[in-house]
Amino acid sequence: MTLTPNPDAPFFNWAQLLATDAAHVWHPYNTAPARDMVYPVCAAQGCLLELSEGRFLIDGMASWWCVIHGYNHPVLNAALTSQLNCVAHVMFAGLTHAPAIQLVERLVKLTPAPLQRVFLCDSGSIAVEVALKIALQYWQALNEPQRTHFLSFQQGYHGDTYHAMSVCDPITGMHRLFTDSLPQQFFASAPTPNFGQSCTDADVHELTQLLEQHHQQLAGVIIEPIVQGAGGMRFYSAEYLIRLRQLCDHFNVLLIADEIATGFGRTGRLFACEHAGISPDILTLGKALTGGYLTLAATLTTDVIAATLSAHAPLLHGPTFMANPLACAVANASIDLLLASDWQTTIQRIENGLRCGLAPARTLPNVIDVRVLGAIGVIEMNAPVVLANFQRQCVERGIWVRPFGRLVYLMPPYIIDDAQLTYLCQMLIEILSQNK
Known about the structure:
Belongs to the class-III pyridoxal-phosphate-dependent aminotransferase family. BioA subfamily. InterPro entries: Aminotrans_3, Aminotrans_3_PPA_site, BioA, PyrdxlP-dep_Trfase, PyrdxlP-dep_Trfase_major, PyrdxlP-dep_Trfase_small. The chain is of the alpha/beta class. It has 13 helices and 16 strands. Strand 5 (149-153), helix 6 (162-166) and strand 6 form a beta-alpha-beta unit.
């Protein structure tokens, strides 16, 4: 495994840099100084990460699920370079620019018809914050100020910013330390019917009761369609999502679909809501939006919601780097690149490879479940993985996989080839077999 050498690549004294990192850098989900080892990446191309020592790793994470086209893609590089020669950034209040307008036009065409208004955000967590603000301001405009709460789901995850944390699972989620200081929301049990199964009245009984009792207090219901991501990596029934849409309509509550992790093909549909054929009132997108090049997200809603809110007050949100031209330009290129490809066949190929490659894990005594949907493969363990040991074993075998809790999962770039995917799965099974 090799990467194409870059003659313009700068030389770094990695010993000195790593010493500085250890002394001053605070990495995500880590202590300071770092409890777990960090591995220095000096180059990346396709599905490969090159470490400073010369070791190559097949990336099974797509850098937290966003690098769908792989690293150092010439089309995305060209889009950035072209935009850089025009304007790198300009404030979006009172000004506009072509990449943002073109991106909004693409998103409106790709998403369900009622979603006609787009607010461009800094990140996925901020897109959720904006969605919650839209819902709250909407009901303020309708003179229902008592609607200040949200209904969410156990094992759900919607981001690490403040109000987004409040709609994440408060018991098993990663934000338990903040529970007493967060806004208090309502939580339904995680959807029980698995993907492909039917959904009965019993499956939505608790959900129905919660909506019946609290709908006058609710500004909205927020859910990750079909796939609950970082809260549990669970795949649930499309019929459940249909029932939820019907219940929100019946009780006059806004439905917010968080597609930050699932958008742009990851589940086998362009958007996970398509599995159920439903349209939310508010939709959040992020992660794969720019192909992993720059941080950018979007919150979409209907003209009716936008007009109702706007007749009362402006939307009270305005990040400095909203609609950054570089991010918008590379997002346009990433979407075009995806749609120009036979991405459905690609996702099916990856799904087949994951089903075959992860199947041996079912026989391991420390494994509870193995599940695959689209380009997502999950191995659920009976006990939490020791992250530092697991990462070291991955790096020694030339793969990059970062589990959380009891969940060991793969969400590789879409360009991963069959040989790379097979090797990734084989090494993962080998590690789990030795850590019984």
